[in-house]
Fold:
Amino acid sequence: MNWKYWVVSVLLVVSCAIESVPSGGPKDITPPEIVKANPENFSIQFDAEKIVLTFDEYVELKNFSQQFSISPPIEGKVDHFLKGKNLTIELPDSLLPNTTYTLNFGNAIVDITEGNAQTIYKYVFSTGDVLDSLKVRGFAHHAFSGSPVEGALAMLYPENATDSFAFKNKPLYYSVTQEDGSFSIENVSDQPYRLIVLDDKDFNFKVSSNQELLGFEGEILDPVVDTVYHARMFNGERDLEFNLARQVGFGKAELYYSNDVPEGFAVSFEKERELFLDFDKGRDTIVVWFDELEGDTTLFYNTYDSRLDTVFLRKADFDKKEFTLKEKQVTVTPSSILTLISDMPIVEINSAFCTFVKNEDTIPTPKMTLSESSYEIEIEGDIAFGDQYQLHVLPDFATSFFGDQVDTSSYKFSTKKERDYAFHIINLEQFSGQQS
Structure:
């Protein structure tokens, strides 16, 4: 008998100091469920100022402001607060009488363990005596293969919507297509609509890339007529066109194109002033930081491929934000990089104007690097279990795009002690041999 064997020892580190045998249970794939709504879902004569949704587990919100929508759209800001298992939605006082509203949450609500998203829940209420009960039904299929398209957005727009409307505005109503490509947009009011179906890769409820499958119904829809619509979806190169420019903050604008702008795309100002371009949202949405000027409009010149777009930006009133930094993550691990972040571009850092403390000892300041995006300052160094780090900075430490300097500030980071982690040693043994 000839036996061969090998032994492998694996050391696992997890953030828990409880000694236990791994359960080996199945991975949680169930999205969080709403167990209570106050006021109740599908209420009539609705006059509440807030809605409280209670979940069956702890959740977190991701990109809520982009994912959340209320249809029909309302004037004013909808605020939200998450505490424990309760999500509170505060409504403005601009709700119309005798109107049915639908709150959709996109994929913003996820559980904190596995990140499973709740994508199908909607909250419906009416400020009148009845709920709108009309619906628009249909199927979405690939134009060439005929196979169904799952997970696309079937969206309704006003009858008078222009061809570029879907590039700039969110829909009035929407639904998500199922595995067989079917969709049902419910609780819509009695008015004509246009239908667009979009395989929305970034889930921003807008046509933003030629990589997204797109389909539409050529005729105006009448929801009173019970018709099943068929949207054949395709993707293809669209001509590069400028769609929209809007100011989104003090000295901050977003430029929207129908497709990705090419390399060499450049923006210049009407005055010879410095600009900062940010392509972090993709090359079809360009963020431009600029110095505020007097007057009602600002003029940009966008150049690419021997073309010139003259962009008029209507000035909006925004208060200038204070230039601040904060810790990207306060509790870190030995594999982390200590990072400070800002919500505006940083143009210069000077480590000579800071003091670095490890535990209670002042040590030489580690190397600091401004990230490629210019929104983060990365602090290199050896991070160990159980350490405390402090960074004390003076005004000349960092300068923003607007020339403002950060105030005298202190930032703290820490790592857990090694005993706060559990160590599981797993021995894997395999024996093989031949028996004669």
